[in-house]
Amino acid sequence: MSGAKTGDTVKVHYTGQFADGSVFDTSQGKDPLEFTVGTGQVIRGFEEAIEGLNSGDSATTTIEAPEAYGERLEELLFQVDKARFPEGIVPSVGDELQLNQPEGGMVDVVVSAIEGDTVTLDANHPLAGRVLTFKITVVDVA
Is 120 exposed, middle or buried (0-12, 13-18, 19+ CB in 10 A)? Predict the structure, then answer.
């Protein structure tokens, strides 16, 4: 068997950890993650780790930030005045919000700091800039 390749639909169980060993995501206790190899449905480094594996195979891979969710970008941090928030919304650090983009669509942001009347919003992916380690077990390759 040649293992998973572009165009194959795979089902995998995984556990994602940071360098300190803390778990940020897992499929354990849930249905396995299903995706088609080569379609960009998962991060590049995760997909590359699956290629060549067969049902029942396991692997551990460490993915640097550029092959995961990218580096953190300072230009995705922006400051707004508290007065610009809709009436009744009092921002707190850690709040997850969605903002309308000028060209249409929505962008997810997190309130990362509040200093006086200035609120800093972060539009980076929460895992941007992080090295990620995944323990992967292939359940099925079709």
Answer: middle
Per-residue pLDDT tens over the stretch 22-80: 999 999 999 999 999 999 999 989 999 999 999 999 999 999 999 899 999 999 999 99
Quickly name the fold that domain 9-70+127-141 has. Chitinase A; domain 3 (3.10.50)
**C-alpha distances in Å from residue 101, one per residue of 29, 125, 129:** 37, 16, 24
What CATH code is assigned to 74-122? 2.40.10.330
Rounded CA separation 105/43 (Å): 22
Question: What residue segments make up the domains of the chain, in order of their start?
Answer: 9-70+127-141, 74-122
How do residues 103-114 score in pLDDT, each as one tens digit?
888 999 999 999
